[in-house]
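ESCALATION

Customer reports they have been waiting on this structure for their group meeting. Please prioritize. Original submission:
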Amino acid sequence: MSSSDTVKVKTVLTTDRDWFPWLAQVREYCTVRIWLYCDPSIENNTTVPARPKKEAVELPDDDVALTPGQARRLRNDEEEAYTNWKYELKAYDHQIQALLDVRGYIRTIVHVNLLSLTNDCESGYHMLRNLQSRMRPTQLAYKKALTREWNTMKAYKKGVGSVDDWLDKWITLYQDCVKAKLPIMELNQPVDDFAEAAAGLGDLTWASGLVQRMYSQPDRIFDFQEVVLEFRAH
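Update from on-call: job pushed to the front of the queue and completed.
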C-alpha cells in the first residue's frame, strides 16, 4: 500500500464524534453534482435540479423560400438541438434518481436510534439538516474527542477485541485526525505513539526496532499507514 492509499471503512452515524467523517462519506456518495441540493450547511435550501427545456430553433417566416442548403442547415440545427436536449434530459434524470437514492443511503448509515430523524423528510437535504441539528459538534469539541480517542488507542491490551480490528481503527482514526489537522499528527509523532502502543501490546522487539529506525533516520517522515501494515504482516 502506498502513502496515497486509504482503507475504506463505512462510518455509521452513532455519536457526534462520527459527524464529520460521516458527512464526508455522504458527500462522496453524492455523485452527478447533487451535493448542492443536499448540503446541510446551507439554510433553507429549496433549490432543485431544473428540468431542461428544448432549445427552440429560429424558423424563417412562412413566405420565405429556403434554398436546399438553407433547408439542410435548418434540419441540422433542429437535430442538434434535439440531441443536446436529450443529453441534458438524461443528465437531469440521473440527478433526480441520485437524489432519491441518497435518502435510502443515509438511512443505511445511521444508527437505529437516529432513524426517527430521517422519517417524514421531503428530501435527503432535510434528513441531513435534522441529523446535523442533533449530531454536529463544534470543531473544538470534535478535535478534543479525536485527541482523547487517539490517546485511548495506546492503552489496548491483549484479549480486548481483535488485533485486526484495533489496527483498522488506528488507520481510520489516523485519517480523521489528519483531516482535522491535529498537532499530534505532526512529523513522526503518530508513528512514535503507535510504537508505544505496540510495546504495550507486548511486542517489544518490533516496537524497539521501529524506534531505532526512526532515530537512525531523523530526517525521514515515516508513513503511518505503511507502519501499521508492516506490524500487521510481521
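Sent to customer with the following note: The helical segments are 19-29, 68-108, 124-135, 139-153, 163-179, 189-200, 204-216, 224-233.
Escalation resolved.
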